[in-house]
Automatic annotation (TrEMBL):
It comes from the Bacteria. GO terms for molecular function: DNA-binding transcription factor activity; transcription cis-regulatory region binding. InterPro entries: Homeodomain-like_sf, HTH-type_TetR-like_transc_reg, HTH_TetR, Tet_transcr_reg_TetR-rel_C_sf, TetR_SbtR-like_C. PANTHER family: HTH-TYPE TRANSCRIPTIONAL REGULATOR BETI, HTH-TYPE TRANSCRIPTIONAL REGULATOR RUTR. This is Transcriptional regulator, TetR family. PROSITE patterns: HTH_TETR_2 (PS50977). Residues 6-65 form the HTH tetR-type domain. Residues 28-47 bind DNA.
Length: 184
């Protein structure tokens, strides 16, 4: 990519990051272009769809979640690692209010620009869940997709103004439902 094209793309991502964090993922592409002081065609040349734009914004966070799973697995007991990862998953996705619907759809749509990063990220959470299950620290009737769905529900709750103040408490409740009591 040419240097000027890279600079334009980085500028668009910086503006999109700020606007979507502020207004949510449903902001119009036209409004994003206006805020970036470029034409809609310029924005669409770099990011032809909202999914492509969200992918560019979320991929780094999802990749970090995948890497974080490895680090947590190495330094924490299985149940603690799973809970810490779930907390970070919710925080990462909540940064882009409203992106949970797109993210949940992307996991099922191989044609979505978000699909590959969502699948990798969900896989890292599933691996932590399986590790906790093998250690007897998590319910055995849950799957990776179940964990992803519960995380999506937590993100959605965090996005709701009436639930946001209780978001951390609700995450603890869900984590307690996933994890089994430690045996003496």
């Amino acid at each position: 990519m040419r240097a000027d094209a890279r600079k334009n793309r980085d500028h668009l991502l910086a503006i999109a990051d700020a606007v979507i964090t502020e207004q949510g993922a449903d902001v119009s592409m036209r409004d994003l272009a206006r805020r970036a002081e470029v034409g809609l065609a310029t924005l669409l040349r770099h990011f032809p769809t909202r999914d492509a734009l969200l992918d560019a914004l979320l991929r780094a966070g999802f990749d970090e979640l995948t890497t974080l799973a490895d680090r947590l697995e190495a330094r924490l007991p299985p149940g603690e690692a799973l809970k810490a990862w779930l907390r970070e998953f919710v925080a990462c996705a909540h940064t882009y209010r409203g992106a949970v619907t797109t993210m949940m759809g992307a996991i099922e749509d191989p044609d979505s620009a978000l699909h590959a990063s969502c699948v990798a990220m969900r896989g890292s959470g599933a691996r932590l869940l399986e590790r906790a299950q093998a250690a007897g620290q998590a319910r055995t009737d849950l799957t990776g997709p179940d964990l992803f769905a519960l995380g999506g529900a937590l993100i959605w709750l965090h996005d709701q103004p009436t639930s946001a103040p209780r978001a951390d408490h609700l995450l603890d409740v869900v984590a307690a439902a996933i994890l089994t009591p430690e045996k003496p």
